[in-house]
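Need tokens for this chain, all 131 residues.
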Amino acid sequence: MILKHFLKRFSLKRLIHFFKIKKMTSKHLDINNLPPDKLLNGIRLTIDNASKLFHAANALKAVKYFGIANSLYILSCEESIKAFALYNKFIIDDDRDISQYFKQHSKKLELLKQGYHFISSETKAMKNHSI
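Here are the structure tokens for all 131 residues:
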């Protein structure tokens, strides 16, 4: 299997190249002041990256590379957060600073944690009120 052979010489750089994951560089962009066409392109790129990372994680999980798969699942969630931040910026177009979700790993993880607790509590509430 190609994937098993590839994983024997694993590096994150090779994995990103292998799955053709694009990096939206925010070092030279003013994320908070992107024109609508750039926001839409950023949304497309981050959703595409999230999807590719998710599928790569599934492939790694299938061959029992659980640690690497978990890391890619987390990266997939982080890309989804970036897509959501760009989407909100596109729809609402307010003065909120979304650059933190592109530069600070801890901010993305905190949002993931909050989202998990929110989804978990909502799921429990739905189960408690089901017929």
